[in-house]
Design a protein that fits this description.
Chain A: It holds the Pfam family Fumerase_C. The complex is a heterodimer of chains A (202) and B (302). Chain A is α/β, with parallel strands linked by helices. In chain A, 28% of the residues lie in helices and 30% in strands. The longest helix of chain A has 19 residues. Chain B folds into two domains: 119 residues, 60s Ribosomal Protein L30, Chain: A (2-Layer Sandwich), CATH 3.30.1330; 123 residues, no CATH class. Classes of the chains: A alpha/beta (202), B alpha/beta (302).
Chain lengths: 202, 302
């Protein structure tokens, strides 16, 4: 159960070193992505100006305040509250995100499915769990909304966040076929019968 | 009969401006401050949790409640679908149409003026008006109570991760209550970590399909520690509360004992041929806020 501090972007070797149960703190850069962002990128063929190779994306749609653009703030936004949404809806975008855009890490809550686990193994990637619904805390790890793309989709634009000490996050799916969610789901299925028997409902 | 009010008693008149201000205030407050019963729920789960990862996750959730209050920030980034319950007592005078307009105005102002993320879009075009409003949204439920000269406005920002954990099954009488129990257990397994556990699992039993689903929402959003007023429903919620926490799903679906704060059940009479059951889930950020209007003024609470 190692702890890793990763300055983004990272290499395939670095992501393959992560094992389920490890913890990770991210530094420097993180991209925010969501349903509409990926529907437009992969179903409607839109491309982003950002180079996502080696980077981490987080399943999010933030609360932001509009501000004047400045030398370091190219987005025109500052964070109000940035948190994490349920990943499962975006399952089918994992492989194209990795294949076409070069993404190495997906951060979210609730986990992804077997297709994503295969993509992590085939292409070198990992899923890091953040505690969903703990957005006030998560916002303290975000320094700025540095830049934005596909902003007609607001609040589901593609955001570039500048981050400091983003974590600890839990490696919940790794590049070696490990998934904490699969283990928990299998255990729940195993316990189901005894639970139903006790309820007189088997 | 032409009398509109009881003779000799001045009715409580609630002006739309007051409703609008309250709607705005409640939306923002609900997003920032968790009710005491939910905080106590966390303390209770934390005391009994045996899994190390689950303990860490619960600690982070509890830390987040403090950070939100200290920094005057939102607990969760999901501002939800705004739901307002309007409970109108006896001898209350209110312009119903103006009340509905005032709730939407207050919601839109909270969204623009705080600002809050507008999480509401057209269901087909997916267009976001950036007001948290749209056709039939905010969801407004109006009911009547026997409270004398009192109007209560309850606000619930219902997060989508847990709202997507909504299920209805039109079971039949031959399936019995055993099938109702199986349905609840299986839907909790299916929802897993996607609904942001620990949750309040709301269960509707009986009624029509739409009433059954509504009962599940009422159950999911009522305070922890409250019980179903129907004795059979209360028995069911005690049994199911224990059962779902034996599945090992745990906080965030990463394993542990704390899958749900509680299972809440609401019941309604149903047809001789029907046995409907519905599940609606509330996430751990089980947010609520309320304003109670009386002749003495406005009381803000949960």
């Amino acid at each position: 159960m190692a702890h890793h501090v990763l300055h983004m972007p990272i290499t395939e070797e670095q992501v393959r070193a992560l094992r389920i149960g490890d913890t990770v703190t991210l530094e420097d850069t993180l991209f925010g992505i969501r349903d509409a962002t990926q529907i437009h990128m992969f179903d409607h063929g839109r491309r982003t100006k950002f180079d996502l190779h080696g980077h981490a994306v987080i399943h999010t749609a933030p609360n932001l305040r509009k501000v004047e653009r400045s030398g370091t703030n190219h987005s025109g936004y500052e964070p109000v509250c940035i948190g994490t949404t349920t990943s499962d809806r975006m399952e089918r975008f994992t492989r194209p995100l990795m294949e076409r855009e070069g993404v190495r890490i997906i951060i979210g809550k609730g986990g992804l499915r077997d297709g994503s686990l295969d993509a992590f193994r085939d292409l070198g990637g990992a899923y890091l769990a953040v505690v969903g619904g703990a957005a006030a805390l998560e916002t303290t790890w975000v320094q700025a909304v540095e830049d934005v793309d596909l902003d007609d989709l607001n609040p589901e634009s593609l955001y570039k966040f500048s981050i400091k000490g983003f974590g600890p996050l839990l490696v919940a799916m790794d590049a070696h076929g490990g998934s904490l969610y699969a283990a928990v789901n299998a255990e729940a299925a195993r316990r189901r019968q005894a639970v139903l028997e006790k309820l007189g409902a088997s | 009969m032409t009398l509109m009010t009881k003779p000799g008693v001045e009715p409580l008149r609630v002006e739309p401006e007051a409703i609008e201000e309250a709607a705005k205030l409640l939306y923002i407050r609900a997003c920032k401050v968790l009710p005491d019963d939910i905080k106590e729920g966390f303390t209770r789960l934390d005391a009994t949790e045996t899994d190390a990862t689950a303990k860490t996750i619960l600690a982070t959730m509890i830390e987040n409640i403090g950070v939100a209050e200290r920094m005057d920030n939102l607990l969760c980034q999901d501002t939800g679908i705004p739901i307002f319950n309007v409970l109108i007592g006896r001898n209350v005078q209110v312009d119903g149409w103006a009340l509905k307009e005032a709730i939407a105005k207050g919601t839109a102002r909270a969204t623009r003026e705080h600002p809050l993320r507008s999480s509401v879009v057209h269901p087909i075009t997916r267009k976001n008006e950036h007001t948290s409003c749209g056709e039939r949204v905010p969801v407004i439920n109006i009911d009547f109570t026997d409270a004398e000269r009192e109007l209560r406005l309850e606000m619930i920002p219902k997060g989508s991760g847990s709202e997507n954990g909504s299920f209805l099954q039109m079971l039949i009488p031959a399936d019995g209550v055993a099938a109702v129990k199986r349905f609840v257990v299986d839907r909790v397994i299916q929802a897993g970590g996607k609904v942001c556990p620990p949750t309040i699992v709301g269960v509707g039993v009986g009624g029509t399909s739409d009433l059954c689903m509504h009962l599940a929402k009422v159950a999911a959003t009522r305070p922890l520690g409250s019980h179903c007023t129907d004795a059979e429903g209360a028995k069911l919620e005690a049994e199911l509360s224990e059962a779902v926490n034996c599945l090992g799903i745990g906080p965030q679906g990463l394993g542990g004992d704390s899958t749900a704060f509680a299972v809440h059940v609401e019941t309604a009479a149903t047809h001789i041929t029907m046995n409907p059951v519905a599940v609606n889930i509330q996430c751990h950020s089980a947010r609520r806020a309320s304003a109670t209007f009386t002749p003495d003024g406005i009381r803000i609470g949960f």
